[in-house]
Specification:
Length: 83
């Protein structure tokens, strides 16, 4: 288990991920900021359940923000099983 994890991804823009208390498959808090190369329509989404307690996603023009509490660690999505 890691106390803090910070990653930067480059793919059609830049994505900054900050994870607090990261386990192999779960994490306490995940925060992400995105700056995309292509603008998009604004939207706001709040989700509950489905491998997380709460997930908030905001996108406007080229900027995006995501917050997740007690959810599946984003870096483990490429693995076969998530449960």
């Amino acid at each position: 288990m890691k106390l803090v994890d910070f990653t930067i991804k480059e793919d059609y823009g830049t994505e900054y991920n900050f994870i607090l208390l990261k386990g192999k498959r779960r994490s306490l808090i995940q925060i992400s900021f995105h700056w995309n190369d292509y603008p998009d329509f604004p939207y706001f989404q709040i989700s509950f359940g489905n491998y997380r307690v709460i997930d908030i996603l905001f996108w406007c023009w080229k900027f995006g923000f995501a917050f997740e509490f007690l959810g599946t660690t984003w870096s483990c999505w490429n693995e076969e099983t998530i449960g």
